[in-house]
Design a protein that fits this description.
InterPro entries: Cupin_2 (IPR013096), QDO-like (IPR053146), RmlC-like_jellyroll (IPR014710), RmlC_Cupin_sf (IPR011051). Pfam families: Cupin_2. Residues 44-112 form the Cupin type-2 domain. This is Cupin domain-containing protein. By secondary structure, the protein is mainly beta. It has a single domain (18-125, 136-157), classed as Jelly Rolls (Sandwich), CATH 2.60.120. Helix content is 13%, strand content 36%. It has helices at 118-125, 142-155, and strands spanning 18-21, 24-30, 40-46, 55-56, 61-68, 70-75, 78-83, 87-90, 97-100, 107-114, 127-128, 158-159. The strands form three sheets. A seven-stranded antiparallel sheet has the order 8-5-10-3-2-1-11, with helices on one face. Strands 7-6-9 form a three-stranded antiparallel sheet, with no helix packed on it. A two-stranded antiparallel ribbon has the order 4-12.
Length: 166
């Protein structure tokens, strides 16, 4: 007798494309294409000084687990430094948020997003890299800005100035 699901996913340690996104490395562990859009999951390697700009995506929730190092999460409710083993949940309608690695060591986060779709943003602005390879932060081109605006409108995501939550 067969029991259990036939769609169980087993992902090898280095499987998935790695993209350099604004100076960080995001490995696409599971994409929406693999989950019928239900969720996506990323291994985020964030160097000192790295992290995304403040942003909001009210139709999506994010879960962050700090695997190594520490990052400072910034939200409209305040700032909190979260270290190894810490967890942050940005719920639907969670407001503006960002994180930054303010330490002198790399930080690694496991990020799950529901529903999937954030990987489309990363694919648009990211550059394929080898695991552990960090690219310098590149300015966003006008074409990328227009694509991000269109994608942001479709996904309900808004990007804010870097100092918005300071």
């Amino acid at each position: 007798m067969q029991t259990g699901s036939t769609n169980i996913k087993v992902i090898e340690a280095n499987a998935g494309d790695t993209l350099g996104v604004a100076g960080n490395n995001y490995r696409m562990i599971v994409t929406g294409a693999q989950t019928a859009g239900a969720y996506s999951c990323f291994d985020m390697l964030v160097p000192p000084g790295g992290g995304p700009a403040p942003h909001a995506h009210p139709k999506m929730q994010e879960f962050f687990y700090v695997v190594e190092g520490e990052v400072t999460f910034k939200t409209q409710a305040g700032h909190a430094t979260i270290g190894k083993g810490g967890f942050v949940h940005i719920p639907y309608e969670g407001g503006v948020h960002a994180f930054k690695n303010e330490s002198g060591e790399n930080a690694r986060l496991l990020c799950t997003v529901m529903p999937a779709g954030l990987e489309a943003v990363f694919a648009l602005i990211g550059t394929p890299v080898a695991p552990g390879q960090f690219l310098p932060v590149q300015p966003v081109t006008e074409a990328q800005k227009e694509q991000l605006k269109t994608l942001g409108e479709r996904m309900g995501q808004t990007i804010y100035p870097p100092d918005y939550l300071d």
